[in-house]
Amino acid sequence: MIRSRTGLVAGALLMAASLALTACGGGSGGDETEGADAKTLTLWHYEGPTSAMGIAWNKAIEEFKAAHPGVEVKFEEKGFEQIQQNAQMILNSDSAPDIMEYNKGNATAGLLSKQGLLTDLTDEASKRGWDKALNSSLQTTTKYDDDGIMGSGKTYGIPNYAEYVEVYYNKDLFKKYNLQVPTTLDEFTAVMDKFVQNKVTPLAVGGAEYPAQQILYSLALSQADRAWVDDYQLYKNKVDFKGPQLKYGADTFKQWVDKGYINKNSAGIKAEDMGVSFTQGKFPIMISGSWWYGRFSGEIKNFEWGTFLFPGNKLHPGSSGNLWVVPEKSKAKALAYDFIDITMKPEIQALLGNNGGVPVAADASAITDAKNKELIENFNKISSEDGLAFYPDWPAPGYYDVLVAGTQGLINGSKTPDQMLDEIAKPYDENLADLGK
Amino acid sequence: MTMTANRAPARTEPASPIKRTNPIRFVILAALLALLLIVIAPLLIIAINAVKSPADYAGGGPLSLPPHLYWDGIVDFWNRVNFGQKLWNSFITSLVVAVLGVALSILNAYALGIGKVKGRIWFLVFFLVANLLPQEVLVYPLYFLSKEVHLYDSLIAIVIIFTVIQAAFGTYLLTSVYQEFPAELLDAADVDGAGKWRTLWSVVVPVSRPTLGVLFTFFFIWTWNEFFLPLVFLVSNDNQTVPVALGVLQGDRLMDATMTSASGLIGILPAMIFFLVFQRTLTRGITAGAIK
């Protein structure tokens, strides 16, 4: 029985409201010791208890308790969806937590900072040295200007971990066809040709979600430099969608489909199914993010696997992870800063790294797990080249769906690269016009 | 007419051997079985994956049978979200909403259906329109109102909201039932000297009990399954209901398929048990109208 929802509710609550008290007033101050004497710290995040972040943060909570006897930590694990949908409403109410994990980006942390719902962490970050622990591409996502655009302005959040897109490969299948890890794009295509000759589709791709656009973006980045990334992501200069970067990305992506590197039916595949098809050993290669790493370490039992960075690229899709933010309504700001400080400590960072996460400020020598060392060494390589290029869907609201539709068109052949580029240029340019740039 | 036509042949050939071997019956049986399988396939897949270890899922995919039963997913999920508490929250809100919703519907429908209040058509149109409004439209007004009265992040807010939502539908439905209410009964009550109040509780409510049972069951299950408004209004974990708790497993980029299945399984079980228990009420209520 399908039924639609109703609207009488407003009337009922209006009646209730007429019975009720007047709203309580409240002022907000903002100095650094504010909330230092608070007796509770309410902390929210949405990472699973067995994920790298969950493990490291649990430890951080323990350390926090040890350092602050008498303070009760009220930790609540939230759903991503709940925070995503409601953050604005929650942070505007008395139910706001004292510190929480939140998504980085213009549409999320940027929007909240613009609405004055987040505490400015700039002074704390420089006083406690958080800013020095983060390299400049990681810092991009922590700073938002008055319009809520990332890249400059005040610091509103601190990330503990990073993420980046790399290439996962099935070592057993590479061995079977006598293939080496490629170091250039040409070698990479040669490897994939070899698989195609042996009737194996080389790439596991989820065309219905983020993976396809990240491959296209990786290809575009192979022709790009930091200035282009700044133009595309931070609107420094106008981006030509038919310029050498995106044109190359779209054309090469189309070639990969035509040559059979990417299966035509992958347009309808979800990211989760892509991951499972790789863990089942159905595809030798998968290009996707470091967020799979911990899961693969625990779950792939039937074959040996490894990773390498997208061959030949200096720039890779990736960014800081989600941020710790302190809501403006937090009643224990000083305690929240102390907690962030603990999460940046070397031992917590090492714990993150040893459990399949990518710590932002870890000493590679403190990572004892051999498998995770590979993950972190790759990240340190990107980091030393300042090579995080963010994600292709960041520049405009709703751009994710535009890019999904565009790459799906390329995969199933309903659009030519030129048509696809025109299609994705339009919302991008409209957003620029909205921003007055 | 149709009833006798149906009944007659059934009486004449109960043990006919030709009928029993009729191949069409097997075809129909097979078709029904296939339909049944299609209907329960999603549930089966959930059940299979709920007792599969993540490694087996990674190796065999969603359709493979688990080599051994793995209960950790269910147990871990139960402990992780403190599921007993969520069950209680869901149960108590659904129950209170169902009771209050039915009570409110009865009072409204008595006035509109039997009391023949002036302009009742417009009341009904209003309730119908209210039924058609999407919840998303209501979120912001409700949010501000509940914040004003300090009911944001409280089960009471959910109870009030859904009592009104369900009662709007209940009023609409029950009013049309009461408009057909036998006038003889009402007249008899009047002759016996029963007042309006007495007539309602001693005559109208007992006679329409099957319909009220259906309303109660539907209100309970609908409220149990509500996701969007509870997601918005129940901020603290201690206040959350079952569907909201299931959302905890939805990650940013990853999903934990086996644990999600485990949570799905224990999430729908209570509603299914409730449905089985009240199944007879439903069928009785639906056929109740046909008798008269």
Characterization of this structure:
The complex is a heterodimer of chains A (437) and B (292). By secondary structure, chain A is of the alpha/beta class. Chain A folds into two domains: 168 residues, 3-Layer(aba) Sandwich (D-Maltodextrin-Binding Protein, domain 2), CATH 3.40.190.10; 203 residues, Periplasmic binding protein-like II (D-Maltodextrin-Binding Protein, domain 2, 3-Layer(aba) Sandwich), CATH 3.40.190. Helix content of chain A is 46%, strand content 11%. Chain A has a five-stranded mixed β-sheet with strand order 2-1-3-12-6. In chain A, α2 links the parallel β1 and β2. In chain A, α10 packs across α12 and α10 packs across α18. The radius of gyration of chain A is 23 Å and the shape is globular. With 292 residues, chain B is mainly α. Chain B folds into two domains: 56 residues, no CATH class; 210 residues, MetI-like fold (Orthogonal Bundle), CATH 1.10.3720. Helices cover 78% and strands 0% of the residues of chain B. In chain B, α7 packs across α9. Chain B is globular, with a radius of gyration of 25 Å. The two termini of chain B are 16 Å apart. In chain B, 35% of the residues are buried. Chain B: Its main location: membrane. Chain B: It comes from Paractinoplanes bogorensis. Chain B: Keywords: Cell membrane, Membrane, Transmembrane, Transmembrane helix, Transport.
- How much of the sequence of chain A is in beta strands? 5-15%
Order of helices and strands of chain B: HHHHHHHHHHHHHHH
Q: What general outline of chain B do the C-alpha atoms trace?
A: globular
C-alpha Rg of chain B (nearest Å): 25 Å
Mean pLDDT across residues of chain A = 87
Shape of chain A: globular
Per CATH, the class of the largest domain in chain B reads Mainly Alpha
The largest chain-to-chain contact, stated as pair and per-chain residue counts, equals:
A-B, 56 and 59 residues
> What share of the residues of chain A lie within helices?
40-55%
Oligomeric state as shown:
heterodimer
Counting DSSP H or I runs of 4 or more residues, the number of helices of chain B is 15
- Poorly predicted regions of chain A are 1-30
> Based on helices, strands and strand pairing, what is the structural class of chain B?
mainly alpha
Strand order of the largest sheet of chain A: 2-1-3-12-6
